[in-house]
Design goal:
This protein is mostly helical. Helix content is about 60%, strand content about 0%. The protein is built from four helices and no strands.
């Protein structure tokens, strides 16, 4: 999402989005949907962190729920939103 914003507004950081464009930025964020590739990559990253024991308890709990809801990250539950 941050990469999308930086590319859209042609800035080096999302912090550099012009104030006059904040409403547009909020609209873009609200309507952003993660791609299947993004979901798979992030799920795999979280699995590695979980296996290494470096996720805090809250993130571990939420991640476990995510895996249950998304068939271990294989289903993009955001696609139809």
């Amino acid at each position: 999402m941050y990469g999308m914003l930086k590319k859209h507004f042609k800035v080096s950081s999302s912090k550099n989005i012009p104030t006059k464009s904040l409403e547009e930025a909020k609209r873009l964020v609200y309507n952003w949907r993660p791609s299947d590739c993004f979901i798979l990559a992030k799920t795999n990253e979280m699995i590695e962190e979980y296996d290494k024991g470096i996720l805090c308890e809250k993130k571990s709990r939420v991640f476990t729920e995510w895996l249950d809801m998304s068939d271990d990250g294989r289903n993009n539950i955001f696609a139809g939103r």
